[in-house]
Structures are given as C-alpha cells and as structure tokens.
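Researcher: Next entry in the queue.
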Amino acid sequence: MCVTAVESRPAGALTSSSRGQRPFGARIKAFVALTKPRIIELLLITTVPVMFLAEQGVPDLWLVLITCVGGYLSAGGANALNMWWDRDIDALMERTSQRPLVTGMVSPKECLAFGIALAVISTLLFGFAVNWLSAWLSLGALLFYVVVYTMILKRRTAQNIVWGGIAGCLPVLIGWSSVTNSMSWAPVILFGVMFFWTPPHYWPLSMKVKDDYVRAGVPMLPVLASNKVVAKQIVAYSWVMVAVSLLLQPLGYTGWFYTAVALLAGGFWLWEAHGLQSRAKAEVSGAKLKEMRLFHWSITYVSLVFVAIAVDPFLR
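Model: Structure for this entry, 316 residues:
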C-alpha cells in the first residue's frame, strides 16, 4: 500500500520551464479551485439554516453574510492545505489529476501560503465581526480537517472518513454560535446527523473510485473490505442518522414540517441504502451496483432536511 507520486506527472501537467507561461485568468481559476467551491456549498447549506433555527426566524442578514464569507474562507483554507499535503497522491488518482498543484498551475509554496492566509483571515473575521466562539470553532474545524484527517488518519486507517468527517460537522455549531454566542442541544443533534451522514455519503463514492485509492495507497473502507461489508456499514450508519434527525421534534426545537420532511427524506434514504445492500449481497458489480444513486441522494437529503430546518420556525 506504500505508493509515492514523486515521479508521477499526468499528461498535460506543466513543467518547470513552462510555468512562466501560466495565463493570469487560469491562475485565478486555479486558486479558486484550491478552495473546492462545490464542497463548500454543501457546508454553507448546513450553516445558514441553523442560523434561522437559532433565531426562530430571520437572522440578521449582515451576520448571515459575514458568517458565509468567513465559513467559505475557513473551509477554503482547509481545502487548500489539504491539496498541499496530498499533492503526491492526487497525481496518482484520476479524479484529482487535474488539481492545480498536480498540473503545476499553482506551486506548493503558493498553495501553502494561500491556505495559511485564508485560515488567519477567516479566524480574525469571525472573531471581530461575529464572535470568538464561532472563530475558535471555525479554526478548530480547519485544524481538524488538515491535521487529524489529512495528515494523520487518511493514509493510516479505514476509519479515516468516520472520524475525519467531524470537521464537516462543525459548521452546524458555527451557524448556531454565530447567532447565540452559545451552544445548545439543537446544534449538537444536527452535529450528530452530519456525523452519521458522512460515512454513508462518502463510501458509495469510494466504492465507485476504489481503483484510484488502491493506486494511491489510501485505505478507504471499500479498498480493504468487500462491497457486502461496506454496504452493511452504510445501512447501519443510515439508520442511526435518520433516528438522530428525528430527535429535534420531541425536544421542542422543531415542529411538524421539519419532522415530515426528515421522515420522508430519511425513508427514501433507507430505501436506497437497503437497495445497495441487496445488490452487494447478490454480488452485483460495475455499473449495475448503482452505488452513486445513494451518493447523489445523500446531497439532496442534506439540502432538503436543512431547508426544512430553516422553514420550520415560520410554520410553528
């Protein structure tokens, strides 16, 4: 499993002699790509609705804007530092072979400086424009993703995405603290939803691109275990996720609307998860396994549930 990318450079990657010819527009796009905008969109989806729940209505829109900007900069810094550390294995995997450090559009030193700058700016922005509780939570999420997940867990254990996913759960705490400057059981429950959501969200994708992780020597669960085992784990986490999502209503944080959406969306999730398990048990492989159906639905699920969180206060 010990593979290195020292001599690996995909076709089309820039050589040292051609780096001086990098167009300005392409460079700007490359720095934006370092922040992984599509992933950050999902993080913001779990941040803003919690602000509505914390306010039990419409929060201060300036606060929402600052929180979104700070959250983007913090997550963007974490993602840039992740790419800086993982540039060797990114060159080995097809789905990451066009990332800016692999192609040479951004140098490792530039990426490192960029990531650190975003981390500092985002922390100060949260601290002075929102509150320091949100600032420390934001910095904690960044450090957890970069140090605990990227540097320690990712290349060492199949539990990497389980515990490393904690970084992606912290935005719900940040959304709540930005409004209240405190904590409560509501964001803790939503933290739990995202914690149990992350593995069954990511493992189907890992099943699809397993060969990439094999080449890079990354021990994602689908690399080390059969599809049957992975699917069984997906179903287990899915049931706990749905159960946790339903705790908000009996504790008095949400009403009928959120509960109805969580039940319907969760029920469909469980249908898809058990369908994947059935196909895995039947030793279906390739395109017929349809593992990406659950991956795509997982994104829809989060969007529906958190939109319901934002809407629910207006229907109570």
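Model: Confidence is low (pLDDT under 50) at residues 1-18.
Researcher: Noted, moving on.
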